[in-house]
Specification:
two-stranded antiparallel ribbon; 2 strands; 114 residues; extended
Length: 114
Amino acid sequence: MTQVPTPLGDLTAWMVVAANVVGWVGWMLLVGWAAHRAPLRRFDHDTWLTRPRSVERDGRWYEARLHIVRWKDWLPEGGGFYRGGFAKRTVAGATSTSCVASWPRLGAPSTRTG
């Protein structure tokens, strides 16, 4: 098996892949938990990070360039992972440029409750 030098020592390629999978899942759960626990006032307005950008054209850029409609249902959905959570598709008006949809795109499933 191929050895990969890392700061933790030489690891096999499979160990590196496994560490990456565990790391990304852990990151997504952590950010999802933070979004789930955040107060509603954090989502009632756009900030510099979540405000719609002119290049997004109300989400049409994502649909035209990234073809999101084709693959978005294949992405993991963690809305029901936390007690009281819900799926993103149940959020009325949550488009790709809304504050509710934008905050968790930092790396986690949307798990916000009211």
